[in-house]
Amino acid sequence: MGAQLHADGSAFRVWARDHKTVSVVVKNREYPLHLEDDGYFAGDVKEVRAGDTYRFLLDGEGPFPDPASRYQPEGPHGPSQIIDPSHFTWTDQAWQGIKLAHQVIYELHIGTFTREGTWPSASPQLPVLAELGVSAIEVMPVAEFAGSFGWGYDGVDLFAPTRIYGAPDDFRAFVDAAHRCGIAVLLDVVYNHVGPDGNYLRKFSESYFTADHKTDWGEAINFYGQHSAPVREFYTANAAYWIKEFHLDGFRLDATQNVYDKSKNHILAEINRSARKAAGPRGIIVLAENEPQDTTLIRPEKEGGYGFDGLWNDDFHHSATVALTGSREAYFGDYLGSPQELLSSLKYGFLYQRQWYSWQKQRRGTSTLGSNPAAMVTFLQNHDQIANSGHGWRIHRLCSYGQYKAMTAVCLLGRGTPMLFQGQEFASSSPFVFFADYHGDLAEKVRSGRAEFLRQWRSLATGQLKFDDPCSRERFENCKLDLSEREKHAEIYALHRDLLKLRKSDAVFQLQDRQFDGAILGPEAFVARFFSEGYRDDRLLVVNLGVELHLNPCPEPLLGAPATMEWEVQWSTEDPRYGGTGTAPLDSELNWIIPAHAAVVLKPAKMKEGNHKP
Fold first, then answer.
1. What is the pLDDT of residues 157-184, one digit of tens each?
2. Cα–Cα distances in Å, from 347 out to 372, 376, 530?
3. pTM greater than 0.85 (yes/no)
4. Residue 393 burial by CB count (10 A; 0-12/13-18/19+): exposed, middle or buried?
5. What is the per-residue pLDDT across 223-255, written as a single tens digit (0 to 9) for each?
6. Active-site residue among 289, 309, 506, 575?
7. Could you confirm whether 289 is annotated as catalytic?
8. What domains, with CATH codes, occur in the chain?
9. Marked catalytic residue, from 66, 107, 176, 254
């Protein structure tokens, strides 16, 4: 599909089954295309080259941009541009791709990651992320959308990286630079709907969409109804395109619960296969957001699954948020933030695995038993959850500094695959709110829709908080990171860096499938024990989100050190390097004393002379 350059010019191919005649207009000249099978129109045009622009006429109507355009230099309403994907010189020939194990993901929004908000300005930050311990970047959607700023989930040209962040080769250069730093690049893709402004798909065929299903953001895509085969090809080709032409290392699929397909060969499984085939021997990972927490996505295809690698774990986020803030409004109402919940999430991933979920008035989730612990992508922040706080405040503004450090340790040392949101590592002061550059009636719908969405929180429904206009440029500009805060907030930055180093270098923490158990020690305290082979080199993660806790007596076997050994502090949130005052031994002749608002890692050490007890 789209425009494909060859030695004599370019081949054009487009699906327009609702039309009798289709022409391509290049350099103000019209060239008729011939009808192929199943509503495709195709043809060759000589003496055109990379950089030329074109559009399609449909039964004389138009012209319209190409649904499979590789670039829209003037935005979604302008002409499409012919791109030569072979023009860029790659230097990543030795890059073998990635596997899910041992990854640390960093979600970022190109438009706010740097002040300039472009691929070229983001590339110099890659070595810094690598030094921090990031191994994979998850870029929020970049498909062309209307306006000059936005989150990207309203993309309309799914093959065209938006002009806002730079040219297609700028994106390629970013990926190439990331690979030189040992960092993979994942792309967040939206296959459940198309944006409302600049969407010309219906002009080419009504069959792109179906009225049998609804999404919260637009018309559902027709993946199984009449004339759906070319629609399926459009999306599977899109997945392959990003992998092949941009050397991407995988995807995060947005809101997969709104990808509807009753076919025996589910479109999600087909998209997954298409992406992996395009990668060839290079390893990629495919992640998904799925609100119902359906583990079918991460089951192997031979077991009836779709073959994805991982799922976002909202349950961990929700429980951790309640534990840190105490707020149980809206969808947080089905969580207590208790030590039991946090331990269960560390053990099993999802907390809801077919139990009743009061907020939705239905059962939620499916079993994770037998799945890879790394398949659970765990996080304290992401773009949605920060924006949903009303102010767009980061979680560190909603809890104590000690609690924030302690929960960070739980997330980054747990068995799941941890994910940071841009700026989290240095406790960014920049908010992250919803923003979209819309105007007129569409802007009014966005304003009212966003306000209505936030009313599910009782406090926000009072109307006492006055929200900024989501369509204002100032709101967008305020979300840009101040990267100098890496130095200004050096203590919390060092904590993140050291935790990721510990996760990677420690023989016990680096094994995500290691044996694991835990116990509740108090109303806001727990211990997680990570077992080693032979149980002689175990690690304890002791977490206390409440007041100082004195355990005397202490009848908890997981706190017992191996024979002839005693526990010593390996790492602590209370280290002065992270703004703490130091950590006294937890286990002494006073029995166990666990500091408040802290997380401490303990490892076995040879018992000191005089400490031998019967």
1. 999 999 999 999 999 999 999 999 999 9
2. 11, 10, 11
3. yes
4. middle
5. 999 999 999 999 999 999 999 999 999 999 999
6. 289
7. yes
8. 2-81 (2.60.40.10), 105-441+474-503 (3.20.20.80), 442-471 (no CATH), 513-606 (2.60.40.1180)
9. 254
